[in-house]
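Predict structure. Chain length: 113.
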Amino acid sequence: MMKLLSILLAIAALGTGLRAAHKWYTASQVQPDFGYIYPGSQPGETYRRGGMELLRFPEPTDPELKQMNESAATLDALNEAASLNKSAAVWTAGSVALSALSAIVGAVESACK
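Prediction complete.
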């Protein structure tokens, strides 16, 4: 019975570890969306900025406006990546705890024989 519990805990640790790895991979792939119209974009297409849904727009000609927009987009991308990293850290902690429990259960089972 203890051996089965140890195996189940190890499988759960594997699953949570893979979930954490996926979260970290996703965080590394986050790109800023400047909200500009791009070749092939559809009329009325939207993007998300600061929790709001906004219509795409042409790239501004004013350099200060362009810099402000790109800074805001970069900040949003960094916030999204930070949120994913935080979630991945929690999943990793769960994986470590499950791995430790699996090892403890295995050691207790071996000691009781």
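Summary: The chain has a mean pLDDT of 95.
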